[in-house]
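Quick note —
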Amino acid sequence: MNDEPTPPHPEQTDGLLSDLLQEVQKWEGTLAGGTKLGVGAEAVDSLFKTKVSFGNPQDKLIRLTEDTFINSGTELIDIYKQQMRDQFDFYYMTLTVDLRPERVAQFWRLTCELDFGPKGSKEPIIQSLFPSDRWRSVMSFGVGLDVGLGGNLEWSIGIDSSQLAQLLPSIPNNLKASVSTKDNFKAFLAVPAYNYQLGYSEIIANGEGNSVCYWRINDDNLQRIGTAKFAIVFKVPKGTDSITVRGTVWAEPKMNWLTSALEDVAAVLSERFQRLLGQGDDAASKFARGGDAEFWTLTLPK
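Predicted structure written out below.
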């Protein structure tokens, strides 16, 4: 995989923000009489207290079979029929990420990385990921979408019939065949009523064919995302009873927001903070929230 993300070190970022908060409070306390948090301290404190966390990946872990697709009005293509019969068990999983920005905190990038195990002969293989940049134009419509999985294990979208006619001219030609009304939706309904709160984001998804995957979402209003949903189809060699997943997620703040909030005290901050703040978004990962790894052992449904 190219350009793999590098998670921040939570202890280092916490220490950095704690030191920054002390410096800002020292100078803003002088300016404001020390009666309450100034603009800069409010921004740093909000950033410090922001939480980013995972949901439980076992919650919507489902085994996919030939009957799963037949019952959904579609049929697996031959290669996946053969793999299901002779070689692999296939599974679908939805994993949620909850971004809880504190007060005035603003963010621009969310990164989620998943590492499936065990490695070696029993290593899981990631088949398909959602969302991806391919779908951002449809997701930016801001309407409720039904996300489904067709017999080719590719994603498709269902939109309410009252809205599809109006939106159809804006759907790229290469996606039109994968978009239908909810009434005519022939796919395994993977994520019903998927509601994407952001606008025209950049969404990078990488990892199909591997055991490690990641998503990177860039959006100037990322703090509005609330709970993000990521969908994964993966396969494991037959006879595999359980897998492990190591998940890491973090959110990077908008540096122009932070530097603007610190404008009144920027000239008196220590050299290291002046240097970091001068780097713009290149330094955003230094102030990221999250970064702690979660580790799960998942029992696979039969």
